[in-house]
Design brief:
With about 350 residues, the chain is an alpha+beta fold. It is about 25% helix and about 35% strand. It has a single domain, classed as Immunoglobulins (Immunoglobulin-like), CATH 2.60.40.10. Strands 1, 3, 4, 11, 13, 15, 17 and 19 form an eight-stranded mixed β-sheet that branches. Strands 6, 12, 16, 18, 20 and 21 form a six-stranded mixed β-sheet that branches. The protein has a three-stranded mixed β-sheet with strand order 2-14-7. Strand 3 and strand 4 form a beta hairpin.
């Protein structure tokens, strides 16, 4: 009876150790958002008034030449009619669910933002592709001469971050700058709840005369940050670039992480047309929580506790292990011994 009780206690400790180690070292749930250069809230769209059939709202956009609007660059946001009707009228629940703004939380640090909307696990975004009426002209270095025709790449940013951080543990933040899938042929789906619209980043196609580099920055004062990728990376026409950071939380708190991307065009030859340098094309903040594993227990402490419980649980199974080994020995070895002994007796009788 005592042996059985010892085994049961060991099973409980073993299970507790496994659960504790899983909570401390297991995979963390993450949030993933696809955003553009500027985010526009539903309230900002509603403030523009009612829209006639075929009329689109004016949305802010960001290009590698700076800020603009869909009206100023001759672009038409591709928003489905049902979605536009829904996003233009806010009910009480949608008003209550408005996303937080950067003025309502901590300052972002030294990262230049293209939007003041703070993303968290409750904030949904929809990317609004643009149809450009026609290529836009740009000046050739301000020296007179012929105008160059600018065509744009429509790009978006894929942002992934942990829903929560564990105190004493680490999590990964990832940014990918990529082409907007299907370009202007991808309409925004119908919106059922409060929504934030993201306009794509417009990058002027200067790849024939310039080399492009994109620099990523991250500001997270409440975390220990480790860069996994090079901060500045080359960007090719139609290509993708990705950055990763590892963040470690030392205290339980609600924190803001600010991230940004800037582009620099480097002329390949002297006399190349003017191109901007170190221009912010995307800047975003996310709000996250750092929590203890249990009560005030950090990840290292939980790992030690889980290991100790697992060892105690294993020791508790030794009586059961002894029974198992004894049964195994009797089945496989004593049976053979009996067979050999029986064969010897038969040989003696002969």
């Amino acid at each position: 009876m005592r042996r059985l009780l010892f085994v049961l206690i060991g099973l409980v400790c073993l299970a507790g150790g496994a659960v504790t180690l899983w909570l401390a070292r297991g995979p963390q749930p993450t949030e993933e958002r696809t955003t553009g250069g500027v985010l526009t809230t539903q309230a900002e769209i509603e403030a523009q008034g009612e829209f006639q059939p075929g009329q689109e709202p004016s949305l802010e956009v960001i290009t590698d030449d700076g800020f603009g609007s869909t009206t100023s660059i001759g672009a038409a946001p591709q928003i489905a009619a049902a979605a536009l009707a829904d996003v233009s009228e806010m009910d009480a629940a949608e008003t209550e669910a408005q996303p937080a703004m950067i003025a309502e939380v901590a300052e972002p640090g030294d990262v230049t933002l293209t939007t003041d909307v703070v993303l968290d696990e409750n904030t949904d975004t929809e990317v609004t592709p643009l149809v450009l009426a026609e290529p836009q002209p740009i000046d050739a270095d301000g020296q007179g001469g012929p105008l160059l025709t600018a065509t744009y790449e429509q790009r978006v940013v894929e942002l992934e971050w942990p829903k929560t951080f564990r105190v004493g543990g680490s999590g990964s933040v990832r940014i990918k700058l990529k082409m907007l899938a299907d370009g202007s042929l991808q309409p925004v789906a119908e919106i059922d709840t409060n929504q934030v619209l993201a306009t794509p980043i417009l990058i002027t196609d200067r790849y024939d005369t310039h080399d492009a580099t994109v620099t990523a920055s991250l500001s997270a004062p409440d975390f220990d940050v480790t860069n996994v990728s090079q901060a500045t990376q080359p960007l090719q026409r139609g290509g993708e670039v990705e950055w990763r950071w590892t963040l470690k939380a030392d205290d339980a708190a609600t924190s803001v992480i600010a991230l940004g991307l800037s582009i620099t065009w480097i002329p390949r030859e002297a006399g190349a047309p003017y191109a901007p340098s170190n221009v912010t094309i995307w800047g975003q903040t996310v709000q996250v929580k750092s929590e203890h594993v249990f009560g005030l227990i950090t990840v290292p402490q939980a790992s030690i506790a889980g290991t100790v419980l697992a060892v105690v649980g294993f020791v508790g199974q030794l009586p059961l292990l002894e029974v198992f080994l004894e049964t195994f020995w009797n089945v496989f070895f004593k049976r053979r011994s009996r067979r050999r002994e029986k064969q010897r007796r038969n040989q003696r009788r002969r």
